[in-house]
What does this fold into?
Amino acid sequence: MTECAVILAGGQANRMGGGDKGRLMLGDQSLIHRVIDRITPQVAALVLNANGDLSRFDDLCLPVVADSVADFPGPLAGVLAGMDWAAEQGYEWLISVAADTPCFPMDLAARLAECDTPVVLAATPDPERGRLPQPTFGRWQVALRHDLRAALNDGVRKIRQWTQANGESLVLFGPDDFFNINTPEDLVWAERNLK
It folds into this structure.
């Protein structure tokens, strides 16, 4: 495999009352363990993006990288941190996944790799727009990291503002493939409906 992956866990989880959403339990397993189990077979290596005291993730036995851009600028900063790590390890491509989305497809990396554009994002069906991008799930050409760093330093925060300017493609998945846990109600729904 020529790809590595970053798990994006650097958000502040405000709608869940703060803390690490990935540590929430879904059944007998935490969200982040579910994410690790799903992405590990799909890539050659894995890194976690988080902020604050990184030692709190020591139990996961993964490398952990913090945002290099200050003030929690959002998921793009996590992608950049993953890209920088990927470059150090010699990888050309980075897959990104979110720590709060426990049931994304087991063929995510393979499906995204079918497109040869510099950035490929997952999408789900949308009755009004046709395809609804899921921008924290993507395949990123690591060589774009310098452009991404410059964009973040210039104030870009919206993922698609940057991806659309850098050769974005969308790959359509199923309607429920990227259900994520944002609120306590989402967690209750997931307990009842996700296996």
Q: What stands out?
A: The radius of gyration is 16 Å. DSSP finds six helices and nine strands in the chain.
